[in-house]
Amino acid sequence: MRPVCPPIRHFHCQLARVPQRRNLLTLAIETSCDDTSVAVLEKHKNNTATLHFHSKITSDNRSYRGVYPIAAHESHQKNIAGLVKEALQHLPPSGSERNGKTLSIRRENGNSARKIPDFITVTRGPGMRASLITGLDTAKGLAVAWQIPLLGVNHMQAHALTPRLVAALDGASLDLASDTRNLLGNVIHSKATGDITRGTEVGRSMEASPPFPFLTLLVSGGHTMLVHSKSLCDHEILASTTDIAVGDMLDKSARDVLPSSLLETAPDVMYGRVLETFALAQSDTKSPSFGGSASQGSSESLYGWKINTPYARSGPKGARSHLQSFSFSGIGSTAKRVVDQNPEMGEGERRHLARDIMRVAFEHLVSRVLLSLEAPETKNIRTLVVSGGVASNQYLKQVFRDALDREGYEDMTLVFPPPKYCTDNAAMIAWTGLEMYEAGWRTDLSAMALRKWAIDLKADDGGILGIDGWHNVAVH
Ligand code: AMP
Ligand code: ZN
């Protein structure tokens, strides 16, 4: 898509930041794929946040063995109004100290005065068009009815900002409970600094955390990209997949490798998760690579097959000639071929194959992180966030920590936000709305859903601020 409003591309989000003297409340809607999700999030003056409501309903795509756009669209249409209705019950009470608008909510024991959100946030793109439209139109309706601004935000920017949401939530819970509950998920420090997973105090600070710049590796069902987040709206894509996403490959490979009894009883179509459970279920002495720390590269298994590491040796500069590229389709097609050649394959060999698929994929992922860290612009970065559904994989965490330590990055902090905030969810959309709102951004009610919408400033569409429909209340 061409930039319709080019000058807006040059505004720097941080410069337009509007200081907030009060708490900010938003109701957020996410419908970009097959999850219908609604959240109510409040950001406090000290940058902590309270999640008053967060719920999602995922369309049942099991019979299609993958996300089916029509089923996803129907599920959004069926569920969005009910979720919003439920969310209203969780809006904070409208106390006398609040100067916002009040909504009277009907409850079993009479009416209750609730605060109307300061604005509505919704995913505007990228995603499946019909799904996005369901959420966007609902959001526009609420914004018009309540006479409040609309923020149509970028789904990928929201994934990149997720660790800042989680730190803010963690800060609020620490302030409220004074305990060490670890809402930040795993913050895994290197062995050199103690090899710990700890609760964190970062959310207490007045600045959002982690501060920019940081690196995010987004590993989901639809995306595989390494992003250098320099500021709220400036995210440079350092590497991305040239074929399919790692989660997509794991899902497809799982369908080839898993015993059919496991596939039939899977609770949803996140077969990658089932693949991990299957691979980890039993220790197998024939698999020394699993749980080991040294990089295995591509070595032949005891069963005679081998999965090649993508882009390992090709090109005159070896792996460096493909440092901006991930590739996963080769891993998936090798796994399929191995099973096709031996349809009666026993469970032990299937388990071994499942482990090797993950090992080669995760070593490939971390190889691009290590190559990117050699560049002058990134060499001082010491925070790597790994987010997206695949980031909940325990083996991936181990492969990353081991590889970073082995290559001299013991001081690199690895942040794995909790899975519920890594998969598609409305809380991350709400947080993105809050940060964009504070930077002065608002979305026109005429804004359309965007099937494609880059987050990189250098992309053809100009990235987050390159598209039409934004206006900034702080720069006029
Ligand atoms: P997302 O696209 O961020 O909603 O994440 C969904 C993707 O993550 C799907 O491809 C899942 O199969 C994958 N996934 C979820 N949990 C795991 C896991 N533990 N190991 C590997 N992949 C996973
Ligand atoms: Zn997503």
Automatic annotation (TrEMBL):
Keywords: Acyltransferase, Metal-binding, Mitochondrion, Transferase, tRNA processing. GO terms for molecular function: metal ion binding; tRNA N(6)-L-threonylcarbamoyladenine synthase activity. It comes from the Eukaryota. One of its GO terms (biological process) is mitochondrial tRNA threonylcarbamoyladenosine modification. It catalyses: L-threonylcarbamoyladenylate + adenosine(37) in tRNA = N(6)-L-threonylcarbamoyladenosine(37) in tRNA + AMP + H(+). Residues 118-166, 207-431 form the Gcp-like domain. It is found in: Mitochondrion. GO terms for cellular component: mitochondrion. The keyword ATP-binding does not apply. Binds 1 divalent metal cation per subunit. Required for the formation of a threonylcarbamoyl group on adenosine at position 37 (t(6)A37) in mitochondrial tRNAs that read codons beginning with adenine. Probably involved in the transfer of the threonylcarbamoyl moiety of threonylcarbamoyl-AMP (TC-AMP) to the N6 group of A37. Involved in mitochondrial genome maintenance. PANTHER family: TRNA N6-ADENOSINE THREONYLCARBAMOYLTRANSFERASE, TRNA N6-ADENOSINE THREONYLCARBAMOYLTRANSFERASE, MITOCHONDRIAL. Belongs to the KAE1 / TsaD family. This is N(6)-L-threonylcarbamoyladenine synthase. The lineage of its organism: Eukaryota, Fungi, Dikarya, Ascomycota, Pezizomycotina.
